[in-house]
Amino acid sequence: MEVWIRPSYYYLPKRNERMPFPVPGWMWDRSFGVGLYDEHMRFIRRMDSLGFDGILFTEHHYGPNGGITPSPTVFLSAATQVTERIKLVTMGIPLALYPQPVRVAEELAMLDNLSHGRLVAGFISGGAQSLYAYDVAAEEERERYHEAYDLVLKAWTEENPFPWHGRYYHYPCVSILPRPLQSPHPPVWTVATSAESLQWAARHRIRLIGSGTLQGATETLNYYKDYAGTHCGWTPASADLGISREIYIGPTQSEVREKIHEVFNREGDLAYSKVFEAPELANLQRAIRSLRSQPRPAPGERNTAERRSQEGLRSGRYLAGDPDSVTEQILQQRTVSGAGVLVIRPELGEMSLDDVTKSMELFAREVLPVVKKA
């Protein structure tokens, strides 16, 4: 089983401060921001040396969550120069936000070369905050995303110049350089919950990461696998499936018990407040829910109370404990879900990156060798 790290890239100048959306410029601390990037580059380098299989670069606009990663490709480009073996994963690029998908294809091909073939391309649907930030209509988002994806894949793989005339994108000639190092192209992953999105991913053989409760994530992955086998003529392997989890690991169960509820509850407390929130954002969120309201294979996934502490642990959303306990939880979730990739987010609540690094060093020593054999 592979293990990928997902940093949070939070912007929290004051540890007790809840950040609004959008974050106004007067709240940006220039020296603190520079320090955040420096810290994360050191963290990325350390995760590479510890033997983790991948590290994720997210995309968010106007903050606060992920507020320092408006461009995962820029961050990933820097990471190519401080890492040697770890996979560099964009999870994900909301393609509908990009007016020039050909440029996305070109830049990702550059990154695949700069990383010597370590790029993993993750594409996703845009959330309300991102659509609002880039003024993309909710009713156009899915079609833009899917057309842009087809264009990127063709730009990567077509050996001769070609024209493209779609609904949203028009090019008299497409012929990108460089070509991706990986052939025919870097592996592609996505996250999805609606039936339509899962079917689209299966038809295009895009690998899938599930989240939520263990039961919910397993149902999502099973729906995807069943649709791929029944309607698309292929059977996703374990390596094509992932699960995403938040994690807290400590050297002993007693130490974890002392801190676990504080860590996970504080994670929820730091969710952004609605101060400064644009009035249009609520309408956009409702429109997205309406447009993506097809039946989900895992209903009831977003119970806020369930995400908290004890219930989150019982439902499998969280992994927590000493190394032996965490190893047992991971192996059990792998058996149930069939996933061959585990994405863990260890940067929770008010934990510093130094604390997160220490916890991942413990994970790498005690848990990773066992999990990799699973």
Structural notes for this entry:
The chain is α/β, with parallel strands linked by helices. The protein has a single domain, classed as Luciferase-like domain (TIM Barrel, Alpha-Beta Barrel), CATH 3.20.20.30. 45% of the residues lie in helices and 15% in strands. It contains 13 helices and eleven strands. The chain has helices spanning 30-50, 72-79, 101-114, 128-134, 138-157, 195-203, 214-231, 253-269, 279-291, 309-315, 323-337, 353-366, 368-372, and strands at residues 2-5, 54-57, 87-94, 119-124, 162-165, 170-174, 188-191, 207-210, 241-249, 318-321, 341-345. It has an eight-stranded parallel barrel, surrounded by eight helices. It has a two-stranded antiparallel sheet with strand order 5-6. Helix 3 crosses helix 5. The longest helix has 21 residues, at 30-50. The protein is globular. It starts with a strand and ends with a helix.
Question: What would a concise description of this structure say?
Answer:
The protein is α/β, with parallel strands linked by helices and 374 residues long. The protein is built from 13 helices and 11 strands.
